[in-house]
């Protein structure tokens, strides 16, 4: 059974909802989902440790978009991982990224690319969403070849659409499938 780490920050709940879609999909397909956050916001939250990264077989990493960049909480954590980088602790682990913005042109794709940078520096294998996922071609809200996305609306209260959910599930399934082949 492959252990997939779902690591995220969520300000208004959209990224948390996406993370839970990832986790539910991993579990439903026979994997182990380990959900972690960068800072404790609710009683059930578990804060990430470096050991969580070392012991996972794959990583799904998401934050809301902050002007096309990852949330500061995530950046602060990744800046503490130089020791893992020096040891090559994450080399060849598969990973994917996901994000949410308040508008269609709110920076999701730039954020996904920004989320990818520390993963690539650590030698992880970045997985996108291939075009054999039919929802990717049909989406009118979130979803890109770089990763799963959501458009939360100007009040940050839009629920995940069925298309966005299917894209999250496709990304999670692919991550688990690749992790299983590598483990």
Automatic annotation (TrEMBL):
<dbReference type="Pfam" id="PF03358">
    <property type="entry name" value="FMN_red"/>
</dbReference>
<keyword id="KW-0288">FMN</keyword>
<keyword id="KW-0285">Flavoprotein</keyword>
<dbReference type="InterPro" id="IPR029039">
    <property type="entry name" value="Flavoprotein-like_sf"/>
</dbReference>
<dbReference type="InterPro" id="IPR008254">
    <property type="entry name" value="Flavodoxin/NO_synth"/>
</dbReference>
<keyword id="KW-0560">Oxidoreductase</keyword>
<dbReference type="GO" id="GO:0003955">
    <property type="term" value="F:NAD(P)H dehydrogenase (quinone) activity"/>
</dbReference>
<feature type="domain" description="Flavodoxin-like">
    <location>
        <begin position="4"/>
        <end position="176"/>
    </location>
</feature>
<protein>
    <submittedName>
        <fullName>NAD(P)H:quinone oxidoreductase</fullName>
        <ecNumber>1.6.5.2</ecNumber>
    </submittedName>
</protein>
<dbReference type="GO" id="GO:0016020">
    <property type="term" value="C:membrane"/>
</dbReference>
<dbReference type="GO" id="GO:0010181">
    <property type="term" value="F:FMN binding"/>
</dbReference>
<comment type="similarity">
    <text>Belongs to the WrbA family.</text>
</comment>
<dbReference type="InterPro" id="IPR005025">
    <property type="entry name" value="FMN_Rdtase-like_dom"/>
</dbReference>
